[in-house]
């Protein structure tokens, strides 16, 4: 799970279907979907959003949504 | 020839637009919605370029993106100019595929080839052009490299597109496309294939369009049938949209293999900067320091000295010049007073603040262009989320510091209707540049030692009130769970002088224009009201119509510290435009040479009353243009009235607390 990842760790998305429909669609627009390799860039304090990177592209999303993305370590 | 410029957000569309066109022909609105429509003329006059909002796909999520789809469905266009970010080719090509399916002649401007090269991505443009069947021109929009070649290709490339099927979507979908195409024969000018695919993807706009041509129930049946057929074929149930996406992705991957060569990868500078500015602990302090520097420069270090110089010119040589001219032409007393006490005082009083306003707009443009704005949204999201908004709402608010009107329009990028409405309602609390002259005047008179700090406190107060109200609205009026926050963080870009100047000027010229038109006419009118009274012309100001009107409201303002007719009269004109407050005050407290309005003000206000007055100006009402924009954007009289009334209420209550509370603590 994404929640257990630390800054700088990399993973591959294996299931994104638990995330809300709109968020899923936006991530898809940005090229982030199942099979994408992602890396946690930073985590804002107090449960704030996380910044992830995929293919040189940085995206910010909320922690609670990031937690719903299933990721396996690579 | 009408050419539409389209591409993903943050691909350098604006830079390319600026480089291809000499000047705007006009900035108008799209029919039905208040979305800025920028149209420019190509440098060599081959046609007009229409700038569209940035989108990832033609299937819209937000209102902003809906504009693009409506454009494709309703407006005539001869050619499409698709701009791609070479360093993010894969994602950008999803849009390109949809554009090619639209079957209008297209060409591609491959932007940021330099950035891509730095990241070790090399693109064979000829190969790419050959596969896609359209011309591909590499450009660097930031410095204009390749733009001449692009214009040349636009003017020479043939008008006929080679219709080429790039993606084979599988037998089931292809059959469905053909079936739907038969139903559409003779009913539409658009490509049936494009319409069908957008429909299958769940594009509501296209669905509405099609339901005018085909029985809606039949459409529904058609889609559900296709879905069930697909589900039988594939064990793992994927949505139709996802299925289409994957088919496109497969093709795009093949295109990339054939045309892109990747070499070494280096850590871009962006990531190094990001590790600081979006740092867990430093993010927020850095943002506040940036804001502080911005205000110090605008009010203390740079803006005020420049304004003082301008003020010296206007009250000195300009006024004496006019005086001399009026004497030579033997102007009557009436004309003399109208021009000197009405126009020069009114319009000049506003123009003095042009330097400060341009400096503020320059910083807002800098924040937008450099890519920091998106980081601010990320840093602020946690706070915004706690009051029921999302970090993206902070961007319209920041833009609102310049002018509330574009701020409110920028709220269109917020996907969920509830958060968008709330952002629209709260953006007027952001202190716009038109309120700035009032602050500048009052801090100069009462808070000389702490100018920037006092003004900053007002800006912060606006934000704090907005956040508190957001919390209250979420709990009462606008209850809903949905919230969406996914934001693209573009790489940092060193802003170009030319584009910075252009966007500063775009924002600032409205202020200058308003001074020449609205404030000009308003000054004449206000001056007439102050010149005439129930007992005839040239009355003592205290017996004028203006005083009579002001006196009606003055008692109401007494408890909050400024129960004079002068304050009441200027607040009324402030609804028309916030700058009008300053021109009205300049006319009312008309001061002969060798004295200043600032000196005179201390006879009418105490420092506490002055602060209360500034807070009132900050909050009391959205100006006429803002109210009109709120109405257009929400489409609701109820919400527009609400935005005016709640602001008045909050302003009054807060000023009451500040003034009466301040008096209790012995402040004056």
Oligomer kind: heterodimer
* Structural class based on helices, strands and sheet pairing of chain A: alpha+beta
Order of helices and strands of chain A: EHEEEHE
Q: Please summarize the sheet with the most strands of chain A.
A: 5 strands, antiparallel
Count every helix of chain B, treating DSSP H or I runs of 4 or more residues as helices: 31
Could you please say which CATH topology of chain A applies here?
A: SH3 type barrels
Our measurement of the CA-to-CA distance between the termini of chain B, rounded to an integer number of angstroms, reads 66 Å
Give me the Rg of chain A, rounded: 11 Å
Helical stretch tally of chain A: 2
Dominant shape of chain A: globular
Tell me, briefly, the overall form of chain B. elongated
Q: Count of DSSP E strands of chain B? A: 12
Summarize the entry for a quick read.
Chain A is 18% helix and 36% strand. With 74 residues, chain A is α+β, with helices and mostly antiparallel strands. The N and C termini of chain B lie far apart (66 Å).
Structural commentary:
- The complex is a heterodimer of chains A (74) and B (668).
- Chain A has one domain (2-73): Ferrous iron transport protein A (FeoA) (SH3 type barrels).
- With 74 residues, chain A is of the alpha+beta class.
- In chain A, a hairpin with a 6-residue loop joins strand 2 (37-43) and strand 3.
- Chain A is built from two helices and five strands, in the order E-H-E-E-E-H-E.
- A five-stranded antiparallel β-sheet of chain A has the order 4-3-2-1-5.
- The longest helix of chain A is centred in the middle third of the chain and has 9 residues, at 21-29.
- Helices cover 18% and strands 36% of the residues of chain A.
- The mean pLDDT of chain A is 87.
- With 668 residues, chain B is of the alpha/beta class.
- Chain B has three domains: 2-156, P-loop containing nucleotide triphosphate hydrolases (Rossmann fold), CATH 3.40.50.300; 171-262, Orthogonal Bundle (Helix Hairpins); 285-664, no CATH class.
- Chain B contains 31 helices and twelve strands.
- In chain B, the strands form three sheets. Chain B has a seven-stranded mixed β-sheet with strand order 2-3-4-1-5-6-8, with helices on both faces. Chain B has a two-stranded antiparallel ribbon with strand order 7-9.
- In chain B, helix 15 crosses helix 27 (579-588) and helix 21 packs antiparallel against helix 29.
- Residues 28-34 of chain B have low confidence and may be disordered.
- The A-B interface holds A 20, 22-23, 25-31, 33, 41-49, 51, 53, 55-62, 65 and B 56-57, 61, 87-88, 90-91, 94, 119, 245, 268, 270-271, 274-275, 278-281, 283, 374, 377-379, 381-382, 385, 391, 415-416, 482, 484-489, 491.
